Give the backbone structure.
Amino acid sequence: MASIESILHETRLFPPSDAFQAQANVSGIEAYRALCAQAEQDYEGFWGAQARENLVWHKPFSHVLDESKAPFYRWFHDGEMNVSYNCLDKHLATQGDKTAIIFEADDGTVSKVSYQELYERVCQFANGLKSLNIVKGDRVIIYMPMSVEAVVAMQACARIGAIHSVVFGGFSAKSLHERIIDARAKAVITADESMRGGKAIPLKAAVDEALGLGGCECIEKVVVYRRSGGAVQWDAQRDMWWHDLVKDQAKSCEPTWVNAEDPLFILYTSGSTGKPKGVQHSSAGFLLGAVLSMKWVFDYKPGDVYWCTADVGWITGHTYVAYGPLAMGATEVIFEGIPTYPDAGRFWKVIQDHKVTTFYTAPTAIRSLIKLGNDLPKQYDMSSLRLLGTVGEPINPEAWMWYHEVVGQSRCPIVDTWWQTETGSNMIAPLPGAVATKPGSCTLPLPGIIADIVDEVGHEVEKGHGGFLVIKRPFPSQLRTLWGDPERFQKTYFPEELGGKYYLAGDSSHRDADGYYWIMGRIDDVLNVSGHRLGTMEIESALVANPLVAEAAVVGKPHEIKGEAVVAYVVLKGARPEGEEAKKIAADLRNWVGHEIGPIAKPDEIRFGDNLPKTRSGKIMRRLLRAIAKGEEITSDTSTLENPAILEQLKNAVK
Ligand code: PRX
């Protein structure tokens, strides 16, 4: 992760080239400023015009923003539309034959789907869902590999007004179970197995396990896409093959017109308590954010081949795989595999083979490929690239420079996009033909996004100082609530301390003299491991659920590739283990966490102690645990600790 020291001294500036600026959708800083000024002068007028221009409405809206029940904002709330119509039907008359998706499987097999074909497949699947009695407002869990079918399933839900909740295929049966129950879903759509790096990962078996954990009576059907052909258990009452479901379905399906505010999806993300939050997004506002950022940030042009490497299980895969590119009528690449299989040239080969113009990935992927040297990327022809993007965590300036020089051949602007599951689309990011970039900074807010940095009582901090990143005005693509928990929504994102009106992002940031934003990291107990959000409390709860464990505390520490690594301090119910026994229990606990949450949450390090450093009132001193994890000297006063001797023990207890 970018250290504060390295970015505070970053002075390199990369203005857009004349050639890029000349062709850009927003060309030159004055054009960017004019858009921002329009939004500031007439906020509703600006957003209303954008929504009319960029979305197709079945029934036009007459109200832009309703703030009467703030912070439960409503946008365009008397309008009707359909997201799938906006992504598919809209293009049929003008570009039905254009390739919508180039799918490259893990083993290198390539298939292409045109807009017409995608439309037909979505319609057939939507009709299939209807035949299962799934209706508007029902929740459908999608637990799928990266595939055309995953996008078809999401679009089909959107088509009939069902609310999808995609669960990342790397999450465990337990995590899936928790989400099924919280969403009270009616169906699960899954695959037999997913293929990653030549290995088959069972998905249907995880669904069986999840449903076997009990309390899932809400689930009526499990639809299974045959991906690998691997063996699966079958419940003839409940399970159904995807191909059987769509076999006799019509290739057209009238979209269900939904209200602009009807939920499009719920996506669970980690927060500072053990329970994941069901972030609920609207239909129209979400799609508007996706479309505008495709235009402004990705400078979308009809000839582009757009490739976002994110899995559809994360927000990036929702906005920039399943919806944004299709709403633009783009050709996009969907890639099933991993960057290092069959070798570490895979990303570069995909770019070369499909003539990718716009490549969007995470700093962690870039850092892992940097380690393998400059030779690999140089073996591929990446001259098709014209724009690069990053997302998910701060990018350290050196990784930025490598991306710029080695991948982008010093020709492609880099858009470092700051946003979140909750914001639905890019919030702070350069418009590449307008805003000069600085390595490590996500630069300036998008037009209409009124960002700021404030102190703990909501007062703006001076430039050059750090504080809490907030968005001061509601914006169309923001989350509407947390599924089933409006109170937590209000408390988490619109805290009273800041006046109850600012959206609190949960990140700290500072702004330099040019007003550029530099994200410093989370202010809550959320870790960012390889660009994935993980709550420390979630991992702690998973650990203490193990019968051996009495107590656990989890913190992050900087990691060269992953950004942050997970360090767990564990107190067992029995004696503190040592030597081989400690190694074995640590390995078991890592697997346990993998099983409870998913492999991404496995602690990188486990340290056993007789107890944890606590104040006399019993509060765990996480600050000290973080310092120990980083190997820092503890210079602060530890006299309030009940058990100062524990610090020495934990320092020497790496497993
Ligand atoms: O801490 C910020 C970091 O990722 C968090 C959001 O995580 P998630 O909801 O999983 O969404 C990730 C993809 C949008 C933020 O609170 N983050 C995301 N993008 C950046 C970033 N930190 C710095 N720079 C970024 N470009």
Notes: The first strand starts at residue 65 and ends at 66. The CA atoms of residues 54 and 288 lie 7 Å apart.
